[in-house]
Specification:
The chain is of the alpha/beta class. It has twelve helices and eight strands. It has a single domain, classed as Rossmann fold (3-Layer(aba) Sandwich). Helix 5 links the parallel strand 1 and strand 2. The longest helix has 14 residues.
């Protein structure tokens, strides 16, 4: 990750750490259970959660793995995640500062690696996937979930601008074909794929990023003035001159190291 992008991520998420730890949407969900089901059979000895954020995915994998390591770029986020893990009895989870593109582990260390709703922040997704494959044992499993990019260029450009105005550390979401290419190039074979649609309540979604009221209003105006054809794929719900909600899609993938 470039120094500039790393600084953006740290600035954005350092101050939002407690909000992400407290988020019910990150702490639970059928998407999280799907990742654990894919990565937990057979029972892994060592698991790694990359870009752990609030640590919820690492805690979920602690139910099935003998030991879990959770890494993140943002130290305040890690401290908050570690406090939450201790409070919830996750004593088999170790936390460490690390970038996805520079994992500080020996080759073939982990049976399973997870990464949930984070790669859209990476400046080099293919580099991160190569690192993940490096630390996976032979026949190891990578389970990943992220925002699914839209195939229509105008709709994709619109929602990327919305995301970046809310969170400047957002790079972009990737389509299913792009994910398949990343994984195949790194030596992984996709064995399972699933998609989910997720409702975003506007006030909660913008509130998690502590948006300045003026910036939030400008973002709302940008959405309201956008072409209806751009908003339609994301099911934006509008009430007068305010935005109530929208929906995005998530892609979930299970891949094995060849």
């Amino acid at each position: 990750m470039s120094d500039t992008q790393a600084a953006r991520v740290q600035a954005q998420f350092g101050a939002s750490a407690e909000a992400y730890v407290a988020s019910a949407g990150f702490a639970r969900g059928d998407d999280l259970e799907q990742l654990v089901a894919w990565g937990g059979t057979p029972r892994p000895d060592r698991a790694l959660d990359v870009a752990t954020g609030g640590g919820h995915t690492a805690l979920a994998f602690a139910r099935v793995a003998r030991a879990v390591v959770a890494v993140d770029l943002t130290e305040p986020m890690l401290r908050a995640a570690a406090r939450n893990a201790r409070a919830r009895g996750g004593r088999d989870v170790a936390f460490a500062v690390a970038e996805a593109e520079r994992l500080p582990f020996a080759a073939e260390t982990f049976d399973v690696v997870s990464c949930r709703i984070a790669p859209h922040h990476f400046s080099d997704v293919s580099g991160a996937v190569r690192q993940i494959v490096r630390v996976l044992k032979p026949r190891g499993v990578f389970v990943v979930e992220d925002i699914l990019g839209h195939d229509d260029p105008e709709a994709a450009a619109f929602i990327t601008e919305v995301e970046r105005r809310r969170d400047p550390s957002h790079v972009r979401a990737y389509g299913a074909a792009e994910w398949s290419a990343f994984l195949a190039a790194a030596g992984l074979t996709v064995t399972d794929q699933s998609m989910r649609r997720r409702l975003r309540v506007w006030s909660e979604w913008t509130g998690m990023m502590r948006m300045d009221p003026a910036d939030k209003r400008r973002l709302e105006r940008f959405v309201l003035e956008a072409a209806p054809a751009w908003r339609a794929p994301f099911d934006f719900k509008l009430a007068g001159d305010t935005v109530e909600s929208f929906s995005d899609r998530l892609i979930l993938l299970r891949a094995e190291k060849r």
